[in-house]
């Protein structure tokens, strides 16, 4: 916007005169006071404000003078010309005393904002964290992070506490709550610690209390699971009686295809390419946040074809309201009761796939691991990774074909 600078002795009559002139010109008019050097009144289309410019006394390292700073004092509706000069004189006095009022004002504003931020509860900060840091759960990892923090706050009953009230004892209590479930304990502790790191970066807390938890009190690494199912047990699972038909269809599909439980439960028809006989998952749909293709065997396709793609979005609608399954404990209990396999856990089907393929075929562990879509199986970057992805896809099709043929022979 063009600006017009007018030196004058600013009084109320001058202010009124140039306010009217500004409306006619449509350009900014700046009145520079001749009584108090550095005091100005900037008049714009929608507003007007008093400012005062000064330069701190002395020199910076290197012999240069300090830069000129400008402070906003207020507007004509709250400050008359005489009051604006008085405010400017106070700033002058502070500068003569060696102060730097603009810097001091910024520090005071930051301290005030920090104090206000500290009045937000943990639950309110979690909502901010979810939006600003976790992109409102754009990926599975981000959704899991927010969920684990939310559950940790609820388990410790500190949702309405302020962040500075969180102590190392709360973290130790969180570990103790999951003493019998070390994997869950590590997930909660890790997610909560990263949430506290965020609060530390935002200067809401002075230190992350998780770092004060001794190594002895931290959650231990859980022993690796070794459970897998024999061909005879797969037959029991395949022919499970007494569970809902939707559960049985989903269970059979998970036996044929080593996806993660939530990936299978969230599968929708748009992710399946029947012509290519494959599932295509975008980065936001998988744990390691990378595009993934899962070839489908003949037996897997036959299970998928039993679904109603015309009336439902989900391939495996396991709930009445057609939303993805989340009650995995209930699902596992139903399968255990129906089959007599009392240690059944859905995730163990992935280990069953890798174990039985290794025992009954000569397929390489690399290909098997690639089909499990582990993060370490996709560590090579750039052109090489994309080249190997294309090269291995046909090999993966062959692996899934072998697995399907084994299942057809067993079940």
TrEMBL record:
InterPro entries: DNA_brk_join_enz, Integrase-like_cat_sf, Integrase_catalytic, Integrase_DNA-bd_sf, Integrase_DNA_bind_dom, Integrase_recombinase_N, Phage_Integrase. It holds the Pfam family Arm-DNA-bind_3. Residues 224-400 form the Tyr recombinase domain. One of its GO terms (biological process) is DNA recombination. It comes from the Bacteria. One of its GO terms (molecular function) is DNA binding. Keywords: DNA integration, DNA recombination, DNA-binding. Belongs to the 'phage' integrase family. This is Tyrosine-type recombinase/integrase. It comes from Roseovarius gahaiensis. The lineage of its organism: Bacteria, Pseudomonadati, Pseudomonadota, Alphaproteobacteria, Rhodobacterales.
